[in-house]
Each structure stands twice: as C-alpha cells, then as structure tokens.
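The data layer described in this paper is built around a simple, fixed record for each protein. Because each token names a local backbone shape, the row as a whole describes the fold. We quote a single record here, exactly as it is kept in our systems:

***
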Amino acid sequence: MQATTNIQDQTLTQAFHALKCKECGAEYELKAKNVCEFCFGPLEVSYDYNKLRQTVTRATIQAGPNSIWRYRQFLPVTSENPIDVGTGMTPLVRSQRLARRLGLKKLYIKNDAVNMPTLSFKDRVVSVALTRAKELGFTTVSCASTGNLANSTAAIAAHAGLDCCVFIPADLEAGKILGSLIYSPTLMAVKGNYDQVNRLCSEVANTHGWGFVNINLRPYYSEGSKTLGFEVAEQLGWELPDHIVAPLASGSLFSKIYKGFNEFVEVGLVEAKNVRFSGAQAEGCSPIAKAFKEGRDFIEPVKPNTIAKSIAIGNPADGIYAVDIAKKTNGNIETVTDAEIIEGMKLLAETEGIFTETAGGTTVAVLKKLVEAGKIDPEETTVVYITGNGLKTQEAIQSYVGEPLTIDAKLDSFETALERSRTLDRLEWQQVLV
C-alpha cells in the first residue's frame, strides 16, 4: 500500500516539482498518478531548469557513477541511494562495416543489448520506477509487459527486496518467459495481446493498490528513457547527433530521447541542434507509422501480427507525440516486413557482431530502407538505437541462420566440410551479384 509521508517536503531540494498534464497543463502532486482528472491527458514530470542550470555541469555528471545515476538530478527520485544495478552507460559503437555496407560515413550504434541486468533498455526505466516506488511506500510492484519489461521488473524488484507480480501475453518467446521466472516473481500469462494485458493491469492497479511501473508509476518510469539521450550526447563529446533512428512501441522511448536532448540544451550542457527523429515499426503492428503517413493527429488502434513482439503495441499511449516529433524534426516513420526484420538482425550481427532481438532488427531494417530512399544524408552523424538482446528472441531467427557442419574427428572429414562451406559461400555471393 502507499505510504502517507509528505512527498512534497522530501523534494524541496530536488529539481522536479510536479506532475503536469501534457495536454492542458494542469499540475498535480508527486504521487502515483498517470492521467489528468480534467482532460484525461497523460502526466509527465516537470522540472525547475533554473535550479538544474545552477547545480549541474559536465564535470559534476562525469564525477558520478558509471550508470544512469550520473544523471540523478534529471531523474524524478529523492533518494541519495537509488537502486543501482549498473544500468546504463552502454557502448556507443562507431560502426565501420555496417556503415560501409549502407554507404554512411558517421553511423553509431547505441547498444542496449548489453544493458544490465537483463539486457534491454527497460532496465533504465525500471530502475527509476522502482526507486520512486520505494519512496512512495509501495511494497508490491508490477507491470504489463511484452517481455523485456517483465524481465527488468522481476530482476530489479528481487534486488530491491520488493514483492513482484508481472503480467505478459501467454504467447511470448520462451527466453523472455524464462528471463522473468528465474527471479521468482508471480508471473501471470494472460490469454490475449499486450493491449488486453494492459487493460487488465489497470483494473488490478485500481483494485490492489500496487505500484505498476507503466501504469500508475508511468510518469516516473518513462523518465528513465531520457538517459539514452543523455548518454549519446555525452559519448559524442557533449554534442548532439544529426539524426537518430529508434524503435516505436508505445512511443514513449522516442519522445523521452527527444526530451533528454532538449533538457541538456536547456541547462547549457550541449549546443542546440535540430536532431532529426526517425522511428521504426513492424508492418504487422504499425499504428504510429500509419498515422504519420496519412497525416493524422490521432492513432487508430490495430491488432498486432508480427514477430517483433516487444514493440507490438496496437494502441500506443504516446503514439501521437512520436508522430509530432518526427514531423517537426523533419524525420520519418517507416515500416518493414517480418522478413526484412530477420534480415536486419542478420545484417547487424554479421557486420558488427551485435545480436539484437526483433525490435533491433526492425530498427536496422528501417535504417537501411531510409538510406536506400535517400532520407538519410551519408554525411549526417546518425545514431541507431538497439534496445534488446537477440538471445531473448531466438525462435524468430532460428530457421534462417543455417546448421552447423557435423564432421568426424578426422582431418579429411574437416577438409571436405571446409571445401563444402567455401563452395556454398561462393554460390551465395554469386546469387547476390546476379
């Protein structure tokens, strides 16, 4: 249950001061609340940037821990000891082989496939959400998830000593189910898609008073995604990129990277620049892309049907904000087929040695599509966001990567197999050239 402590008193020395409606601007106390009472718009955390400008410098950030908590003053927590499991500061890889393959000169890969502790960007948002949940007095935490969020919530709740019950669609990949069960949460596999899971969780949140990271704690949770913007700016030498390409599920990640860049500009940590924002969706679940292409200011829900389950949200809460960002930054929102997603996964692996899940395959495939359409300038500093690890979605790729060459423990057997593999390679290259 929620504690009765005076949260406002605890935040007097903090830069965040209210929850503010993104639609009508109404402000609320810093409690577990995600929807405006007047217009039903989403709430987000509001900050005093004058205070941040006076207290935060590049030096103070660099003196902080090697995790997302080096940006603690930009995050909605009061604790001097937040839940820190080494989340964040993942590699920003300067691409060589993928860049050459695509014809780009300055391509970077932000690789959250190696984020800690559960190998996806969700570890960022959950670290923030559960730190705030403890501050608000919750002892049981939960989430509605397409897999990665359930993994993160279960793992970080275990570390923090919080009771945990997570909800997933029943047809998730085995790796993601195992990746939650190992932490011993109560795992509810719901017969339905993510949007049905989410509706059920809203009822449970209202009934049981639990802290749902992406429902009643969503304003705090979503702020964790800003760190993907902060880190890229810092890792580029305190400069913003020219163009980013990121996956779109709810649209929150996209909009929070945008907010993160703007906050660094607002407090004087980086120079202002019009960063182009492009989003990636699977053709089988592309409500945001459809709204963008049709010039609509509303999202029409769809029923997901794609292998990219981690981004298969048919009724995205922040979809319209993602559309707006893509439009005003002169970006794009594009879709790719399941076959192109698999090719995107393989392309990233064979060029850069990064095994991404289907969401990353979607993003790489869209990057390739945008380049081929002339929508990315080869001279631009482009950052592509890889948000999860391929070990979680092995089923999607298993039938497309060939089989091992089984040989006897004899030299002649090895030589025969080696020649065969070289012949097959030559045939594949000939087919490509044709």
